[in-house]
Design brief:
alpha+beta, Alpha-Beta Plaits, four-stranded antiparallel beta sheet, two-stranded antiparallel ribbon, 2 helices, 6 strands, 18% helix, globular
Length: 98
């Protein structure tokens, strides 16, 4: 598959906690398969991937004024890295005492 496979990381309480055990969650292209996701993560972040799990997430129904709309369906990939490998997703800012 050509083009962008990994769109963005999923930032939620659960996904941030999974980062401590070398599991990272991403929103990926709905047409991407496990092998393509694995190679994209390895090339983008320069890490070794142990495994990839995917889930198709159904869009939730919402209401915009009187109209009932539905959010788009999307694919979630949970990538497990080999021990000792990490992805620096969130840069920590150190504040000065000033």
């Amino acid at each position: 598959m050509k083009g962008v496979i990994i769109y963005r990381p999923v930032i939620s309480e659960k996904s941030v906690q999974l980062g401590s055990v070398s599991k990272y969650t991403f929103v990926v292209d709905s047409r991407a398969n496990l092998h393509e996701i694995k190679s994209a993560v390895e090339n983008l972040f320069k890490v070794k991937v142990k495994g990839v799990n995917v889930a198709n997430v159904k869009g939730k129904p919402k209401q915009a004024g009187r109209a009932k709309v539905r959010r788009a369906n999307w694919k979630k990939a949970i990538v497990t890295l080999l021990p000792g490998q990490t992805i620096k997703l969130f840069e920590e800012k150190v504040k000065d005492g000033n």
